[in-house]
User: Which sequence fits this backbone?
């Protein structure tokens, strides 16, 4: 099983996503990442059904660095209670770079 993970969160704008990406990679908490979007999301928030445009941020890091990256993303995130998730990377070419910093 791989030691590498793909971390995901969303924000309200491309600029906010790029700012989070630059701060995480700049702090060497992630090897690299991408900003995808915009995407339309439908969600429950504070008891209300909402709909909006979001930008997804994907970052690659190691499992050992995940908790520190998660804390960084939550601290720097523009939302009060952002969702941050990860998925283990169990396959792919050896040049994915997640462990190289």
Assistant:
């Amino acid at each position: 099983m791989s030691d590498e993970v793909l971390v995901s969160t969303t924000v309200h704008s491309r600029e906010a996503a790029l700012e989070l990406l630059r701060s995480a990679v700049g702090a060497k908490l992630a090897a690299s990442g991408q900003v995808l979007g915009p995407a339309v999301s439908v969600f429950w928030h504070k008891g209300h059904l909402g709909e909006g445009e979001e930008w997804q941020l994907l970052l690659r890091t190691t499992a050992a660095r995940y908790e520190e990256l998660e804390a960084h993303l939550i601290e720097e995130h523009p939302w009060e209670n952002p969702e941050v998730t990860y998925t283990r990377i169990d396959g792919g070419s050896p040049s994915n770079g997640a462990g190289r910093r």
